[in-house]
Amino acid sequence: MLSPLQLSFRKRDTLLSKTTNAVRLVDGDGDGFPNLFLERYGERLLLSTRHDELLTSPLRQELNKLGQSVYWKHLNQHQKTAPEHLTGPEVTEPFTILENGVRYRIDFSAGYSQGIFLDQRNNRKRVQKLARSGQTVLNTFAYTGAFSVCAALGGATTTTLDLSQPYLDWAKENFRLNDLNPDSHHFCKGDTFHWLKRFQKQGRLFDGIILDPPTFSRDKQGKTFSVEKDYGELFTLALSCLTPGGWILSSTNCRKLPLAVFQKQLQQHQPSFTLLETTPMPNDFSGEPYLKALWLLPKS
Ligand SMILES: C[S@@+](CC[C@H](N)C(=O)[O-])C[C@H]1O[C@@H](n2cnc3c(N)ncnc32)[C@H](O)[C@@H]1O
After folding, report:
1. 191 CA → ligand 1 middle, Å
2. Is residue 110 part of a domain?
3. Same domain? 64 vs 169
4. pLDDT higher than threshold 90 for residue 221
5. Count of domains in the chain?
6. Is there a single domain that holds both residue 164 and residue 65?
7. Ligand 1 pocket mutation pick from 107, 162, 234 by most atoms within 8 angstroms of CB
8. Is the CB of 147 under 6 A from ligand 1?
């Protein structure tokens, strides 16, 4: 008989292929493991728990038996530390994963986040499909530029924007991993609001814009951004930098913001003739549907 862990793995078999080797293997309540998550990154595993006691000794033994590298992340809002080595060979270098044929650099020693958010897999694929040669795509709050890589592979010239220079450098590395020349694209360091206002003044328009901000952030000048308070303003600014007929992906993982409220927040700023389409989370995210994605799409 299969153990609950093996059952969860089995459910994801069809998602793993020659072109995708990174998925969520256990998604908390959705797989009968409340507050416990397990992700596969190539041959390496990352366990995340909200409480340390959730790693029971039977579970630890089962993970030991896999013989794979397993790292353990303690989900904690206050102490955001890098995952610790739990079992299997230690991972001493960054490595590459594959998602829908796209390569991304993963680093287990980089800090609290490892380089990619797997819950955005389907949205990245859609961005790759929407982006066309001759078009421009702006990726704000870009982190390691995963959306930019997809847009660039779709043929667009991309602008990748983030507060952090190390993340922008990581994004360039992700471009190179996919045989894309970062010198043919733009990378902007700084605050998204600042840059959007600048683009607006310059009359610079984009055919596609990605908005996926953190729930809360504070820049060096102490200026704060909160999804619940400020997303409407962010969306309005983005609209002013959008080519007529362009698309916007607005996304948030803010658990406190229900989809209907998020939709209403954006709908107020939306021209009456367009619709905001929502997309569900990928199938391996069987637990709480915390990620909300709203697409402003051109009329077909
Ligand atoms: C949740 S991650 C975004 C994930 C990314 N969209 C993805 O799918 O990979 C948040 C990112 O926003 C950046 N950030 C936070 N506040 C910012 C701001 N005001 N302007 C630009 N980037 C910001 C952080 O440095 C971080 O890389």
Report:
1. 9
2. no
3. no
4. no
5. 2
6. no
7. 162
8. yes
Q: Are strands 224-226 and 292-296 parallel, antiparallel or unpaired?
A: unpaired
Identify whether 103 is part of a domain: no
Q: Is the CB of 195 under 6 A from ligand 1?
A: no
pLDDT in tens, 88-97: 999 999 999 9
Asked if residue 19 and residue 134 are part of one domain, the reply reads no
Residue 247 is predicted with a pLDDT of 95
Q: Which amino acid is at 3?
A: S
Domain identity same for 37 and 174? no
Q: How far apart are CA 213 and CA 250, in angstroms?
A: 9
* Residue 274 falls inside a structural domain: yes
Question: What CATH number has the domain bearing residue 166?
Answer: 3.40.50.150
Among the atoms of ligand 1, which is closest to the Cα of residue 113? 2
Q: Are residues 47 and 185 in the same domain?
A: no
**Domain residues for 189?**
118-296
Mutate-to-test residue for ligand 1 from 117, 143, 215, highest number of ligand atoms within 8 A of CB = 143
Q: What is the pLDDT of residues 13-32, one digit of tens each?
A: 999 999 999 999 999 999 99
How many A from CA of 212 to the centre of ligand 1?
7
Considering the domain boundaries, does residue 168 fall inside one? yes
